[in-house]
Write a structure and sequence with these properties.
The chain starts with a helix and ends in a 5-residue tail after the last helix. Helices cover 63% and strands 1% of the residues. By secondary structure, it is mainly α. It contains 14 helices and two strands, in the order H-H-H-H-H-H-H-E-E-H-H-H-H-H-H-H. A two-stranded antiparallel ribbon has the order 1-2. The chain has one domain.
Length: 363
């Protein structure tokens, strides 16, 4: 909106035309918005959720002490993200619409899930089948719309391998791949959201990595120097506009972390974790980093795999691989302090993010 008013409509402020400036402004907007509004929002959540237990039943006994902490804090995170993007993003760009739509739709699914948990006074919410079906339908519809666009690229890039030499076009099979990336990332972030600040830290880290990747994929410097061609990665027209979304996610995430850090004053809830996960998955698709996102999102992938392996092992052998899944609960039951688990998972996330960024220069 501000981009249209200040530059596209009147060219009143020339600096606004640069995605790099608008990304910084968007991040600052989301950060300030969140920091100022979270205190009254948390007080309001405590009033409306009074008497509700927001602690999942399938968690260690030590989590019972967190009963009474309000949830659905991700609602304001999502609002800050959307407002910041709408203010500073180029709303004529299809990619920014795609990532915002996916984030919002998955956030609505999470909101309904959280609302049912609060209304029914238990931790069940929507059934797993309903959630997955709804997420898959939304992702399928969105990716199909993108696929029919004339400039859509259904080729797949691989880390380390030069895109110019190996870029298989998988045509319509790209749609299920993209759905797996988006839905898988959304639910992996949701599973990771089990300790104070555990999920939002890697979300912020991943958002920064995709900010760099999006800028590298789309930016053209001095009207002739194409960064993507130099790095031998796919060049995507308009991808640099996604930096506004990434910066907004970082700013809103940092504001939320201020109040979610141990001991948390508010929990994210499914409304936040599903929305942020879907946004990150969509960024991986739009920037052609579907494969390397498995590295960047390594912490989320590790948490999801721990649940899958635990279920398969118990069904096939009757034995559990971990003391409890997801993985962070395993370390809790091993006696690790919650802050130690959180910080060490953050460190792993940063290391994996650096590996993901390094893949740009190893092609």
């Amino acid at each position: 909106m501000l981009y249209y008013l200040l530059y596209q409509h009147s060219q009143l402020v020339n600096v606004v035309r640069y995605p790099s400036f608008r990304a910084i402004a968007a991040g600052a907007t989301a950060l300030i918005f969140g920091l100022l509004l979270y205190p009254p929002f948390i007080r309001w959540l405590k009033v409306v959720q009074h008497g509700a237990s927001n602690v999942r039943e399938d968690t260690p006994e030590t989590h019972r002490s967190k009963s009474g902490t309000p949830t659905m804090g991700g609602t304001l995170l999502l609002v800050a993200l959307l407002i910041s993007c709408l203010l500073w993003g180029d709303l004529t760009d299809l990619k920014i619409h795609a990532v915002l739509a996916m984030t919002t739709c998955f956030g609505l699914i999470g909101f309904l899930d959280d609302y049912r948990k609060l209304k029914q006074r238990n931790s069940k919410g929507l059934s797993g089948v309903v959630r997955i079906v709804a997420q898959t339908c939304i992702a399928c519809f969105s990716i199909a719309l993108l696929y029919i666009q004339p400039d859509f690229d259904s080729r797949v890039s691989f880390p380390i391998i030069n895109f110019e030499r190996f870029n298989p076009d998988i045509y319509w099979a790209y749609i299920p791949l993209a759905i797996i990336v988006i839905v898988g990332t959304a639910n992996a972030v949701n599973l990771t959201d089990g300790l104070d600040g555990l999920a939002i830290g890697p979300v912020i880290t991943s958002a920064f990595v995709f900010l760099v990747l999006a800028y590298a994929a789309g930016a053209v410097l001095l009207k002739t120097f194409v960064i993507a061609d130099y790095l031998r990665i796919p060049h995507i027209d308009g991808a640099e506009e996604l930096t506004v979304y990434c910066a907004s996610l970082m700013g809103a995430g940092i504001a939320f972390l201020w109040y979610n850090t141990y001991p948390a004053s508010v929990f994210m809830g499914d409304v936040g974790s599903l929305a942020m996960g879907a946004g990150l998955g969509t960024l991986a698709v739009l920037t052609k980093n579907e494969i390397v996102s498995a590295i960047i999102h390594g912490v989320f992938l590790m948490e999801a795999l721990s649940v899958i392996l635990q279920v398969l092992s118990f069904k096939l052998t009757g034995r559990r691989i971990f003391k409890m899944a997801p993985l962070h609960h395993h370390y809790e039951l091993k006696g690790w302090a919650e802050p130690k688990i959180i910080v060490r998972f953050w460190i792993v996330s940063i290391m994996l993010a650096l590996i993901g960024l390094a893949s740009l220069k190893l092609r």
